C-alpha cells in the first residue's frame, strides 16, 4: 500500500538531493560574489527539500533520512538523469535551474491535491520556495537572453540540451498506477510532462528563444528569431546535445556522471556506516 | 515635492539606521530638513537621504521566509555542546 | 593646513582612539596600509572558501551537507563585505581579484594547504576558525571604522562557525576509532600551519599598522591567547600534538619558538605553498570562463519586443 508512496517521495527527494549537490558545487565559484551567496542558498534549499521528502519516506520505512540519502547503491537512486549532469557552465546551470523549477512548480501544484496529508503540506511549503527560485532563474535567463551574443549562444545551446533532458523528470514513477489509485498522485507524470513542454516552449518564446519541438514533444530545436543574430553558428563544445535524452533515472539507470558523483557523495558515510557524524 | 527616506548613524560602531522621512523639493533641501528634523539633538553624526522612489523592496515579503529548515544557520542548533563535550571526554578517558 | 600639520593631527586623533571613516582625510600610508590589510583579509576569505568547499561533496549527512555549504557561503559573504569596504579605499574589486589570481597579492597561509577528508573539516572548523576568531576579535577596536563594523558581523558568524566546527570535532572525538583517527591525522597535518597562522613575532617599532592602531595586538600575543584557549581543549579529548609540541609553563600553554619550523611559511609568502598554484589557477581559469557573464551583468538589460 505504502510502497508506491515511498517510491514517489524517494524519487522526488533524489531529484532535489542530486540537483542540490550539483548546485552546491558552485559555492565559492559562481561568476559574481553576491550571486555566489545567493545561489548557495538555492543549493541549500534543494538539499533541505530532499531532507523533507526523505523524512516522509523515513516514517514509512523506518530507515533514517541519511541512510536514504547516502546509504543506497548507485542503481537504487531514482532521480532524473538531468539532475546528475555536471554543471558545465553558468548558462547550463541557470537553464537547468530554470527548467527544473518550472517542472517542479507544476509537479508541486499537482501534489497539493495529494490524498497524503504530509506530502500535500510539504508540497505547499516547498512550492513557495520554488517560486523564489524561479524568480532568481527568470532574472538570469532574461539578462542573458537579452544580453551580448556570446551569452545568448551559450543559453541556446544549454536550452537545447536541457529541454530534451527534462523528459527524464516526467518518466512515470515506479508503481505510479498504484499511487494514482490511492490518490497519492492526482495527475499522471506523462500528462504533467505534456503541460510542461507547452509551458516551457511558451516561456522560451517569451525570451526570444523560439523552440520547435518534435512530435514526441521532447527533442528541441531552436530557430533563429527575426533579429537574425540570435543564434551563433558555432555549435562546437556541446557534445551533450546529441546524447540520449536522459531517460532511465526513475528506474535507476544512470549515467557515468552519477557513478562519480555517488562515489564522492557517499565517501565519508560509507567509510564508517556505523558511525554518527 | 518628493518623499525622502532619512538614515542616520549615531557613532562609528553603528550602521546607518532608518529614522524617518521628510517631504522636500530636492535632495539638498531634504538634507537640510532632515538635519533639523532628525539630528537636532545630536542623535547622530552622519546623515543620508534618498528619494523614496529609489528604494526597492520585495512585493511579496513571504518570499523572504525560508520554507525548509535552516536551523543550522543559528547558534541554537549547537546548544547541546556541553553534553557532547562530556561524551567526548568520557570516550577519551576510555582509551588506553 | 600643510600635509605635515594634517599628519600630526591625524596621529593624535588615532592615538587618542579616534576612528577613521572612508570619507575622512587620511595619510597616504594609512590608506595604503589599511587597504592592503583588508584586501588580504578579503582574499583569505575568498581562498578560504576553497579547502572546505572541497569537502562539501563528502559531507556524511544531510544536515552536515547543508551546514557546511552554509558555512562556505558565509566565507564568500565575508569576502563580499570586505572587498566592498576595500573598494571604497580606492582599488576596484576587479583589480583586487586579478591581483589575487595572478599571484600579486597574498592570502593567509592556512589556505595554501590541501584537505584530505572529513577530519580536515573538523580541524579547520574548530581550530582554524578559533585562531581566526582570536585575531579578528582583536581587530574590533581597529581605528578604521568601516572595517570594525564589518568585523562585528564577521565575528558573530565566525562564532557560529566555531560551534559548528567544535560540534563536528566532538562527534569524531566521541565516535569510532576510525573517526578519532581522522581527527588526529588532520591535526598532525594542520598544527604547524595553525601555529604559523599568527605570523612571526611582530616588530613593534616597524609595524605601521600597529602604530596607526589598525591592528591593536602583536602576533605573539594573539598566538599565546589561542594556545591557552585551545590546547587544553584538544588534550582533554585525548588527542596529541606534533611539533611544535605545546607545554605548560607558568600557568600558560606555550610553544618554544625554536621548535617552530618557519620554512613552510616562508615558501607560502612567496606563493609557493602546496596548493597555491593549483587553487590560484582554478580561480583564474574560472574568472576567465566567466568573462561573458560579467559582460551580461555589465550591460543594461535590453527589452526584446
Structure write-up:
- The complex is a heterotrimer of chains A (277), B (96) and C (305).
- By secondary structure, chain A is mainly α.
- Chain A has a single domain, classed as Up-down Bundle (Ferritin), CATH 1.20.1260.10.
- Helix content of chain A is 61%, strand content 2%.
- Chain A has eleven helices and two strands.
- Chain A has helices spanning 3-24, 33-61, 65-70, 81-84, 90-111, 117-145, 149-165, 176-182, 189-206, 256-265, 267-271, and strands spanning 211-213, 220-222.
- In chain A, strand 1 and strand 2 (220-222) form a beta hairpin.
- In chain A, helix 1 (3-24) packs antiparallel against helix 2 (33-61) and helix 1 (3-24) crosses helix 8 (176-182).
- The longest helix of chain A has 29 residues, at 33-61.
- Chain B has 96 residues and is an alpha+beta fold.
- Chain B is built from two helices and three strands.
- Chain B is elongated.
- With 305 residues, chain C is mainly α.
- Chain C has a domain at 55-66 and 107-295: Ferritin, core subunit, four-helix bundle (Ferritin, Up-down Bundle), CATH 1.20.1260.
- Helices cover 64% and strands 2% of the residues of chain C.
- In chain C, a hairpin with a 2-residue loop joins strand 1 (247-249) and strand 2.
- In chain C, helix 3 (62-87) runs antiparallel to helix 6 (145-173), helix 5 packs antiparallel against helix 6 and helix 5 packs across helix 9.
- Chain C is globular, with a radius of gyration of 21 Å.
- At the A-C interface, helix 1, helix 2, helix 3, helix 6 and helix 7 of A face helix 2, helix 3, helix 11 and helix 12 of C.
